[in-house]
Amino acid sequence: MSPAQIRFLTLVRREVNRFFKIKRQTVGAPLLETFLYISVFGAALGTRIDQLHGVDYVVFIIPGLIMMAWATNAFSNNSSSLLQQKFQRSIDDQLSSPASPVELLLAFSLGGFLRGGIVATLTFIASSILVGVPVEHVLVLIPALFLVGFFFSQLGVLVGLRAEQFDDVSFYQTFILQPLIFLGGVFYSATLLPEPFETLTQFNPVYYMIGLVRYGFIGYSETNIALSLLFLTVAAGILFTVNLRLFNRGYRLRA
Amino acid sequence: MYALAIKDLVKRYPTGTEALKGVSLEIEEGEFYGLLGPNGAGKSTLIHCTTGLAQPTSGAIEVFGHDAIHHYGDARLAVGLAPQEPNLDWFLTLEESLDFHGGYFGMTRKDRRERAQELLETFSLSDKKDQRTRTLSGGMKRRLILARALMHRPKLLILDEPTAGVDVELRLELWHYVQRINAEGTTILLTTHYLEEAEQLCNKIGFINGGEIVATGTSADLAREYGVTNLEDAYLKLVGRGELSRAHIGSEA
């Protein structure tokens, strides 16, 4: 391995090491949370709800839960990790190394991406065993999940970079991210909503992400798949470009 | 070739504060250079510009002939930094702190393991290698920070107030160690508020004040330049507090 490869792998390893050290909080808690959703909305309430678009209610909500697991974990990992390292100034060890801004950005992004991927995969495996989850369009599902993970990784990096205190991170998570995800149709189909809420939902970007992932799993979508994929790719690309510019400038990292 | 060559370095913060006002400085290979100055003189800013933690407004920095600002890869490989404030990651063990640092500098796993073991032994930290860094005492943290700075075998070691707040025996222990590695060829740039430390260790000293290097030389040169008999009095003259000289205390008694 070349010194540059060793450097990049170490930067990533450091991020993975961090969330595995506190795995009860970073992997265990999100898994439990997802199972609680499945139990309450799927098993308890779901028995009283008819099928939605040809599938059991519990199966209908699982794609959204898997997407939500990846998105929230990617976001919270990266925002917390960056802020915590800035707060301790331990990030100076990476910043004074030969690592380039793009290497640093990719390594920080991958930390959350991988954590989200692990939680989402474990959720999928457990859901498949418990209730059986179909995979109808794997060629849409894999890129859709990867793009969602990458998008929220970048968002986490951006918020972590801007944040100056832990309250800043929880503000974005509680007041922006959670409402967008919950109102994006994780637990229901937007077609069931009365106006103007059905139309308003269409202005929520997460609605299209859930649409993509749900299409990948159960083959049903209320959104245009090709347009949604294009939109998500462009949005993730824009966020990455913004973050790269900020890393190049040393924004809130270097004096 | 100079170990560190800084030319017309200016650092202006967005607030308008000019921390460095065109600093030029040259440190010969193998030198033990002391940078002295009051708080806010620009010592840490100069170090941060050299190590990539601050972005210079203008000027040039070369480390062993390598550009340290734009194409900084080789320059950073040659520098080890022990910062003023302990900046260890609370989640990592001592061994991991060294291992990750070595990885950032491209060291192989075998080399990292051997070097970490060697440094943990040197700084009497071997029995704590699996503890998390937050459990360490202040003195232990200082040792680990120095070990981490040395992990990738830098040719230029920058010590930013390495003995601030440490007990006498650790201070002496660190002095012995840095003197030894200097004798073995490592160039050292030291900032300190302990003039005795600078006098004891450094073969060249620079006074920095208000973002400018105002005098350079041996401790005897500086005393001569300020028309006094020792480094402490020269320093007091630099900061405009000549009345605090110990000579005055003696005469008042």
TrEMBL record, chain A:
Name of this chain's protein: Transport permease protein
Record has Glycoprotein as a keyword: no
Residue ranges of every copy of the ABC transmembrane type-2 domain listed in the record: 21-250
Similarity field: Belongs to the ABC-2 integral membrane protein family.
PROSITE patterns in UniProt: ABC_TM2
Signal sequence, renumbered to the chain: none
PANTHER family: INNER MEMBRANE TRANSPORT PERMEASE YADH, INNER MEMBRANE TRANSPORT PERMEASE YADH-RELATED
Record flagged with keyword Ubl conjugation: no
Recorded superkingdom: Bacteria
TrEMBL record, chain B:
Location(s) in or outside the cell: Cell membrane
Entry membrane topology: Peripheral membrane protein
Gene3D superfamilies registered for this protein in UniProt: P-loop containing nucleotide triphosphate hydrolases (3.40.50.300)
Organism superkingdom: Bacteria
Protein keywords: Antibiotic resistance, ATP-binding, Nucleotide-binding, Transport
Any GO molecular function: ATP binding
A Pfam family matched in the record: ABC_tran
Domain ABC transporter: 4-235
Listed PANTHER family: ABC TRANSPORTER ATP-BINDING PROTEIN, ABC-TYPE MULTIDRUG TRANSPORT SYSTEM, ATPASE COMPONENT
Protein name (Swiss-Prot/TrEMBL): ABC transporter ATP-binding protein
Origin species: Solirubrobacter deserti
Source lineage: Bacteria, Bacillati, Actinomycetota, Thermoleophilia, Solirubrobacterales
